[in-house]
Q: What sequence folds into this?
């Protein structure tokens, strides 16, 4: 009895065993960044907004681990707090994109009548280079974290919708869907129990890559001034501040860039691993 | 002996899938997957539907279950016209008729455990209430199809083809149907496993009084399982007869050719006068005029090119009944497969 | 084939219309007042009003949309607020820089990406593959504007061998020189993508039966890989290249800002900052149009590569 | 292969292929999978040898190993392959490439995927000639046309510019055969050439192969899991189970008097058109996967064998010579033969 | 004046603003130096902001102050070879009265009349004491262009090279909007008398060709200068100056006056209107010295450690209301003001002198005072419209050029819809009127002083200092004007 219970308990962790090294390594990096974002107030050594003109452009030191910026603010603390923006924006974009994109993809893949109009609309959105579209949306709505999320969500939705729709189109042709129909299940039940679970794999991979893209895009938008508005630190606007001090304060550009790269690298590695694990045939979702 | 009752009767069943093409995706034609099929299935019997790939067997099976809508024709199940049923009635009908699929690899939702797969129809149709009752019923069904109870919590990919097919059968049986369409249930399996599944199906038929429409492209399998056989060619039934009659005395040149093409696992058997058909099966989107088989038929006459032969009752030497759709049925001397005593 | 092309062309019409609607209303949503850019910081209200009338901003939005659509259909994208000349002219002035940049980065992406992808597909998990995996992962993970800054720091500021910014159109060579760093910046991540896609597509194809057939025919390995495998692996590679061209042709906004290149991306960013509505609308519409055309060409290319698509 | 049978063959006809203790493994995380585990056999000129067995038993891997087409993680780890006396295992990669498609050719199961979808029929055929017999384009084309005619393709001129997807399944397989026979190979390896085809088409293709091979004196290694095909085509049969040869016999002997319980089970579970209908006798249990077999002690078939004794479960039987041309890997081969005779 | 430098060569200038047009009348937002090199006006300001003769050699005012008569310089030719006559001045005015960006400053001009070829009369409807200052504005200015071109253009903008015809030392060669604009020396240029001083005096066009390119990013401009891609970089940030000084082929030239750095309180609504003492609290709470440190080493800025509302650049400007930093006082003022922790929205626009550079520091001071402040960064266009809504902000960054016409002061008493600001002191308009219309500098100064007394009470500005514009240049360039923040280039030459 106890042996049985034990094996049951282990069974629920069985998914860990086949996780490959890449998922663990990439996931570890991502978790690290998420941890930094969550524990930012604890990890930060300074108030990220604290201006101290006398301390401007100080190189890395024991007090300011990663140096200070042109307003004498502590780069390390700003980066640590900036992680929050990246994580929050990234997560929000991923969740919204996935929820909305999945809904659109499911509906248009499953109910063929809606397919035409919905996909034309997605095609139209996809015809804009996503960064330009995001810039235009942020410009239209004003630069704020919330609007960055909206802009990126709008520009990424079609990608998720397409992936989901493609998968739905193939899943709905599988005989197990027909077997569900033979039992008498209705469309929404079939979508819920048959289509959705089978779309999850590519969706998770896609979500990982979207998260990576969203982090880069947020930084890019902030970099050109169409993203997170100051004084709120974000990796992009720290980099943007640093642009003017490229030659005399390398630490202003190097460190935030490194953080972006590490988190995106983590996501990409994890996404690659997930893709190989879940859906070896899927193409890069970009 | 009383005339066996009909469970299913279809008349003039048609299914055309539209073909689109061109700039505006206009409908330019149709795949005539099923073209004027009339047949009936008696309670408790196994009717086999054979034919080469693409001839419309699966489509017919699906039409019978109303998994797809027919383009034309009448569909009676147990005396009830099921083409007019609304959603709710159709749902109840699903309890009476089920289907087993060919591909045991794609016919089970890979994200569901065996117990969920089997319990789903039970719960959906409220055939078992409460957790305990459902579990008991699932165990019972697994037992019936010969799956060990220890497999309850496994996923389909952890099973071999034959075991998966058993899961599919259990799922179909769960609603306690009267009629099951078996759509090539064994053709994806290894020989040694095929026999297991065939025997299981036969056992179940006996135990539960099931009626089967057994779809297959393999006439040698059909000989073991069916009471009557319908041979399809390009969406039409070309011959329908009792199994033994059909094998021994084919009346349609296509049936004869089919029989003659099948390799027999017996090297001692000398087969003379093998009919090897020339050419391929024509496309159902562009069927030939007249008798669909005439381009490949060595006996074809002028009339065959012009008129579609009707399925009609034709007498056989042995007096056994059967229907054939061939203009020349009476005039042809076709070779069947005489039943030899088994050497093994 | 003609029907195929025609069908694809017609299929894009609704997309183009939706693109137009999105474009116009997106831009008109902007809360800012473009008139503010054409008066001095403390100009009085009459002045602002005059500019608003002059820019046609006093009309209701729907009316402006109808008017704009009519004009666009006649090929007239309007007059840029800021440049005071046809949007198309401004766009075309900025286009060459962006196209050259796209071209050079694409060359880098292909010249680096395809061989690297092929080599790593040849020996999966071999040394080359491991190296190129790291190369590609880093390429896909580096924000390209950061890479651009690092390149400027290294080659322009520290070593002083390359121009830090700007586009010098004096001759092909000066142009090439000014686009080299930006092209590397953009090309690297694209090369990484192309390499990954080439690799996975080749691995996929090399599992196929016809590659086995080709080997069973006794064909030499280079022929098997080059003719049988690569030909079939091309479709997904073409997809990535199509996407790359699309994103290069207009999506290089940030890199153009980093390197101060007077291209389309820069023009968009600047126009957005100035609320130059006609210009933003025009660029969004034209770039979307370009991408639609690129997609069309990609589809045609698929059809050329793969007869199964051609004969539908 | 036993000494005596080898001798006998040398007397009757020249040996084209001799395989000696071939071992092919797939390297995996765990222990290496022994996909082909010490297989030996030979084929003479003009002879057709059938290799039968259920899925996963190593038929295809054997075939690929013969032309050294195994790629990582697979690896041939031992044995010799003699093609007309040359040991292919000692040849360089480039020499092997000269032999492939030239002295030994191969055709595959699924003709749609085995033909390159983006090259015309002509290119794919001409390629073989260019590779092995460089010559002028015109001559090559004439030769290609001639071959297409031989394999019975109507309107060969017209088909030259066709792409594989524009041909029917039967046509594709004919093209595959044409491609394989173009340079007049001494050995043709056909890996389930008709499994994907309809019976009527299968009959055409088998007939074609039989005719061409006998015309050209080509040795044919026919891989199949269909005992019917075996009975119709083969001179001798090799039965494989779990990567090993379990029985080898001339075709008639094999069917009349199988010496291995597995062979017997296969025959009994195969539906036979010509014999009395009745219950098929299934082999119990599952078709094993290689990974499962790692820990099976003794005879690999023992878990499914009704005659298995403790000896079977602990000691692995060798391939015993039972007579001229006959061998079986069973401790109780004699008894098996006797029970079958008794039944008959 | 004599031109003693070396002639020849090409000068490549990069500035932060893009250049799409050289229409001197219509535009205020683009680089001014190229336009001032092409066009000239009747009078020009010198470094002391005193109008000096330019195209007009002399002028006189009628006794009623309603007619001003200008003598035109002789022999002046336009770039197209036509000779300057009075009719050109009239036609230019007519166009300017239609499209002139600052024509509201000249609303009092009734008409402009050509008395004869050499004489022009300006007829005013009201006396306007600051007429000369207003007609010598350096941007959005009444530029003199050939009559036929002025009429032909009408209200359309002069964007194409052939439409841009002036009398200045350089003429337009090509205009590539947002790209590269090229000027060439005008050989028939007629020199003005006097030492070169700001926009006035002699102009010697030494270079054969001058190109202007737009590099918005300051550090990129510096990099380009260091790399030798350009000769002259306008507006180098103070932090970058050292690099140019340390490099052996570049130099820096700090020019003053530069930009004023100031903030504006919303005195119509919200806490700063309700609690006037709060404004003083902010003034006292600022360490301008530290605030200005954001502009780099102190060589390049001048802090006003006693923030006031105006700089005494004009003789009549007030010197009072000083607040040296005193945190205790500031805190005390906050407490006394009655401030109840109402939210204070601090609008910032990037790029401006008080933009992202200094805004964080200002934000910090306000927080240090315990104000419930929220900084909002907006882009230019949004900023432009948001600031009009007086209930959408409490304090905003401002800043800009140092020259403030009196008309602006007038305008600063009304909101964007032309309504007078609430709480405007009584008599505001009367005094302003007098300050504008009084003859003679002395008298005007007196009236202005009275006006600024009132203004101080209403005071919505918070000036913290000046930033010098630093010009970065190749070290072989000579004669770069130190009194000109716009980096005029007409007297610069290159030493071999
Ligand atoms: N959904 C569909 N849309 C269009 N054509 C279809 C569809 N389903 C089936 N067909 C066509 O209808 C014809 C009959 O198909 P069906 O699946 O019934 O054949 P089958 O006899 O079951 O063949 P197989 O032995 O290969 O299973 C085929 O030509 C097929 O291509
Ligand atoms: N590339 C591979 N990697 C790992 N294992 C392989 C590979 N190819 C084949 N195998 C294993 O080798 C064994 C023999 O495979 P093979 O393809 O020869 O079987 P087969 O007898 O041809 O079966 P079928 O009738 O299904 O074609 C199988 O168990 C399979 O799992
Ligand atoms: Mg079927
Ligand atoms: Mg095989």
A:
């Amino acid at each position: 009895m106890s042996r049985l219970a034990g094996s049951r308990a282990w069974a629920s962790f069985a998914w860990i065993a086949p996780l490959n090294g890449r998922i663990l390594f990439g996931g570890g990096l991502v978790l690290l960044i998420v941890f930094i974002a969550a524990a930012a107030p604890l990890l930060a050594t300074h108030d990220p907004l604290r201006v101290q003109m006398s301390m401007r452009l100080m190189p890395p030191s024991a007090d300011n681990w990663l140096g200070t910026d042109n307003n004498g603010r502590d780069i390390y603390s700003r980066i640590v707090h900036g992680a929050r923006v990246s994580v929050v924006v990234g997560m929000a974009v991923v969740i919204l994109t996935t929820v909305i994109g999945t809904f659109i993809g499911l509906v248009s893949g499953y109910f063929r009548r809606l397919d035409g109009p919905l996909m034309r609309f997605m095609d139209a959105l996809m015809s804009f280079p996503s960064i330009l579209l995001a810039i235009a949306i942020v410009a239209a709505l004003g630069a704020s974290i919330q609007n960055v999320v909206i802009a990126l969500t709008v520009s990424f939705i079609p990608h998720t919708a397409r992936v989901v729709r493609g998968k739905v189109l193939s899943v709905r042709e599988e005989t197990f869907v027909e077997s569900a129909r033979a039992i008498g299940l209705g469309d929404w039940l079939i979508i819920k129990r048959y289509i959705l679970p089978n779309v999850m794999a590519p969706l998770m991979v896609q979500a990982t890559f979207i998260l990576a893209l969203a982090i880069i895009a947020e930084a890019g938008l902030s970099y050109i001034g169409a993203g997170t508005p100051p004084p709120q630190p974000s990796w992009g606007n720290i980099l943007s501040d640093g642009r003017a001090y490229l030659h005399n304060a390398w630490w202003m550009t190097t460190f935030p860039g490194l953080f972006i790269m590490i988190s995106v690298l983590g996501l990409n590695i994890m996404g690659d691993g997930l893709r190989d694990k879940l859906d070896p045939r899927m193409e890069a979702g970009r | 002996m009383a005339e066996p009752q009909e469970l299913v009767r279809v008349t003039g069943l048609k299914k055309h899938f539209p073909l689109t093409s061109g700039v505006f995706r206009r409908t330019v034609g149709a795949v005539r997957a099923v073209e004027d099929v009339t047949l009936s299935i008696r309670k408790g019997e196994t009717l086999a539907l054979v034919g080469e790939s693409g001839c419309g067997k699966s489509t017919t099976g699906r039409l019978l279950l109303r998994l797809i809508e027919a383009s034309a024709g009448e569909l009676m199940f147990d005396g009830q016209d099921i083409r007019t049923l609304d959603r709710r009635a159709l749902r109840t009908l699903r309890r009476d008729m089920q289907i087993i699929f060919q591909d045991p690899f794609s016919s089970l939702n890979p994200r569901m455990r065996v117990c969920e797969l089997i319990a789903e129809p039970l719960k959906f149709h409220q055939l078992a209430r409460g957790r305990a009752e459902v579990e008991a019923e699932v165990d019972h069904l697994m037992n019936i199809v010969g799956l060990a109870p220890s497999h309850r919590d496994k996923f389909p990919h952890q099973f071999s083809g034959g075991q998966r097919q058993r899961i599919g059968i259990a799922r179909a049986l769960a609603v306690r149907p009267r009629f099951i369409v078996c759509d090539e249930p064994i053709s994806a399996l290894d020989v040694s496993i095929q026999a297991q599944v065939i025997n299981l199906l036969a056992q179940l038929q006996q135990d539960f009084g099931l009626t089967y429409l057994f779809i297959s492209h393999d006439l040698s399998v059909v000989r073991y399982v069916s009471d009557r056989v319908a041979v399809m060619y390009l969406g039409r039934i070309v011959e329908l007869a009792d199994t033994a009659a059909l094998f021994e005395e084919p009346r349609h040149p296509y049936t004869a050719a089919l029989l003659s093409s099948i390799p027999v696992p017996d090297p001692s058997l000398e087969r003379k006068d093998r009919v090897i058909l020339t050419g391929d099966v024509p496309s159902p989107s562009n069927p030939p005029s007249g008798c669909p088989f005439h381009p490949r038929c060595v006996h074809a006459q002028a009339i065959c090119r012009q008129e579609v032969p009707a399925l009609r009752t034709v007498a056989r030497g042995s007096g056994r009944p059967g229907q054939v759709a061939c203009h020349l049925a009476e005039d042809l001397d076709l070779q069947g497969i005489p039943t030899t005593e088994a050497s093994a | 084939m003609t029907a195929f092309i025609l069908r694809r062309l017609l299929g894009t019409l609704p997309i183009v219309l939706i693109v137009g609607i999105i474009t116009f209303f997106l831009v008109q949503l902007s809360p800012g007042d473009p008139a503010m850019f054409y008066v001095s910081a403390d100009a009085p209200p009459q002045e602002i009003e005059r500019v608003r009338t002059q820019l046609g901003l006093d009309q209701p939005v729907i009316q402006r949309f109808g008017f704009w659509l009519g004009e666009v259909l006649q090929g007239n994208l309007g007059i840029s607020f800021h440049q005071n000349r046809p949007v198309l002219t401004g766009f075309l002035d900025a286009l060459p820089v962006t196209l050259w940049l796209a071209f050079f980065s694409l060359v880098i992406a292909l010249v680096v990406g395809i061989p690297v992808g092929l080599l790593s597909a040849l020996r999966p998990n071999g040394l080359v593959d491991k190296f190129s995996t790291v190369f590609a992962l880093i390429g896909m993970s580096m924000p390209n504007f950061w890479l651009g800054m690092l390149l400027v720091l290294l080659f322009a500021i520290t070593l002083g061998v390359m121009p830090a910014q700007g586009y010098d159109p004096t001759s092909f060579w000066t142009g090439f020189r000014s686009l080299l760093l930006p092209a590397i910046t953009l090309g690297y991540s694209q090369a990484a993508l192309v390499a990954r896609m080439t690799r996975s597509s080749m691995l996929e194809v090399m599992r196929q039966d016809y590659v086995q057939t080709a080997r069973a025919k006794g064909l030499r390995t280079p022929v098997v890989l080059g003719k049988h495998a690569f030909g079939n692996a091309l479709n997904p590679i073409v997809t990535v290249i199509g996407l790359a061209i699309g994103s290069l042709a207009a999506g290089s906004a940030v890199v153009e800002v980093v390197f101060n290149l007077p291209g389309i991306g820069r023009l968009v960013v600047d126009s957005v900052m100035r609320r130059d509505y006609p210009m933003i609308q025009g660029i969004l519409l034209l770039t979307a149009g370009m991408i639609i055309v690129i997609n069309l060409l990609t589809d045609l290319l698929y059809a050329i590569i793969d007869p199964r698509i051609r004969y539908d | 292969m036993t000494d005596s049978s080898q001798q006998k063959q040398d007397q009757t006809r020249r040996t084209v292929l001799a395989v000696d203790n071939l071992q092919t493994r797939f390297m995996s995380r765990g222990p290496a999978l022994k996909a082909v585990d010490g297989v030996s056999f030979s084929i003479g000129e003009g002879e057709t040898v059938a290799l039968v067995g259920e899925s996963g038993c190593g038929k295809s891997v054997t075939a690929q190993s013969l032309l050294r087409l195994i790629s990582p993680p697979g690896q041939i780890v031992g044995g010799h392959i003699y093609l007309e006396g040359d040991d292919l295992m000692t040849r360089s990669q480039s020499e092997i490439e000269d032999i492939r498609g030239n002295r030994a050719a191969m055709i595959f199961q699924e003709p749609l995927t085995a033909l390159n979808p983006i090259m015309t029929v002509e290119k794919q055929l001409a390629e073989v000639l260019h590779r092995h017999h460089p010559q002028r384009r015109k001559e090559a084309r004439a030769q290609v046309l001639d071959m297409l005619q031989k394999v019975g393709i109507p309107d060969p001129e017209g088909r030259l510019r066709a792409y594989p997807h524009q041909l029917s399944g039967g046509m594709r397989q004919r093209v595959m055969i044409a491609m394989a026979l173009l340079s007049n190979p001494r050995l043709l390896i056909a890996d389930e050439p008709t499994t994907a085809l309809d019976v009527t088409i299968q009959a055409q293709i088998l007939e074609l192969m039989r005719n061409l091979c006998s015309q050209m004196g080509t040795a044919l290694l026919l891989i199949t899991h269909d005992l019917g095909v075996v009975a119709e085509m083969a001179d001798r049969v090799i039965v494989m189970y779990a990567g090993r040869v379990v029985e080898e016999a001339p075709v008639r002997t094999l069917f009349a008097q199988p010496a291995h319980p597995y062979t017997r089970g296969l025959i009994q579970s195969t539906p036979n058109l010509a014999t009395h209908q009745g219950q098929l006798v299934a082999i119990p249990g599952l078709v094993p996967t290689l990974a499962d077999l790692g820990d099976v002690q003794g005879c690999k078939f023992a878990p499914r064998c009704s005659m298995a004794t403790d000896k079977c479960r602990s000691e692995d039987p060798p391939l015993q010579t039972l007579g001229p041309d006959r061998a079986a890997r069973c401790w109780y081969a004699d008894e098996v033969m006797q029970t079958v005779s008794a039944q008959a | 004046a004599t031109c003693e430098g070396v002639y020849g060569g090409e000068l490549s200038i990069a500035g932060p603003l893009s250049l799409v047009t050289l229409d001197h009348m219509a535009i205020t937002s683009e680089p001014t130096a190229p336009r001032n090199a092409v066009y000239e006006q009747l009078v020009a300001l010198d470094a002391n902001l005193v109008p000096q003769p330019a195209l007009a050699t002399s002028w006189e005012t009628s006794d009623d102050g309603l007619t001003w008569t200008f003598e035109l310089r002789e022999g002046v030719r336009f770039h197209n070879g036509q000779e300057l006559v009075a009719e050109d001045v009239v036609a230019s005015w007519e166009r300017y009265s239609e499209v002139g960006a600052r024509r509201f400053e000249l609303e009092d001009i009734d008409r402009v009349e050509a008395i004869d070829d050499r004489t022009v009369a300006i007829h005013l409807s009201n006396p306007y004491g600051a007429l000369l200052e207003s007609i010598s504005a350096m941007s959005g200015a009444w530029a003199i262009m050939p009559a036929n071109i002025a009429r032909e253009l009408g209200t359309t903008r002069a964007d194409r090279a052939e439409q841009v015809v002036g009398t200045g030392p350089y003429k337009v060669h090509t205009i590539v909007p947002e790209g590269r604009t090229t000027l060439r020396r005008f050989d028939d240029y007629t020199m003005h008398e006097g030492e070169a001083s700001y926009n006035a005096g002699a102009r010697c066009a030494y270079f054969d060709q001058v190109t202007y390119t737009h590099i918005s990013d300051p550090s990129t401009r510096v990099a380009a200068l260091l790399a030798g891609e350009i000769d002259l970089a306008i507006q180098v940030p103070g932090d970058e100056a050292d690099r140019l000084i340390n490099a052996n082929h570049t130099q820096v030239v700090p020019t003053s006056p530069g930009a004023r750095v100031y903030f504006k309180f919303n005195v119509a609504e919200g806490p700063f209107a309700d609690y006037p003492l709060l404004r003083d609290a902010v003034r006292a709470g600022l360490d301008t010295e530290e605030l200005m440190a954001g502009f780099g080493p102190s060589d390049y800025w001048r802090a006003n450690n006693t923030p006031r509302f105006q700089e005494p650049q004009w003789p009549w400007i007030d010197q009072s209301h000083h607040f040296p930093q005193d945190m205790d006082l500031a805190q005390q003022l906050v407490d006394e003001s009655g401030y109840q922790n109402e939210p204070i929205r601090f609008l910032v626009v990037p790029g401006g002198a008080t933009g992202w550079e200094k805004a964080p520091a200002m934000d910090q001071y306000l927080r240090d005072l315990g104000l419930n402040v929220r900084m909002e960064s907006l882009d230019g266009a949004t900023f432009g419209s948001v600031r009009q809504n007086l209930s959408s902000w409490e304090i905003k960054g401002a800043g800009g050029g140092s020259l403030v016409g009196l008309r602006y002061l007038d305008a600063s008493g009304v909101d964007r819809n032309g309504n007078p600001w609430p709480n405007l002191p009584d008599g505001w308009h009367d005094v302003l009127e007098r300050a504008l219309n009084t003859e003679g500098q002395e008298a005007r100064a007196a009236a202005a002083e009275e006006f600024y007394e009132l203004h101080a009470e209403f005071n919505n500005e918070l000036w913290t200092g000046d930033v010098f514009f630093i010009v970065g240049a190749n070290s072989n360039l000579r004669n770069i004007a130190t009194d000109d923040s716009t980096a005029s280039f007409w007297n610069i030459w290159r030493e071999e």
Observations:
- Residues 282 and 330 of chain E are 7 Å apart (CA to CA).
- Chain E has a mean pLDDT of 81.
- Residues B 57-58, 183-184 surround magnesium ion (ligand 3) (CB under 6 Å).
- Residues 441-458 of chain E form the longest helix (18 residues).
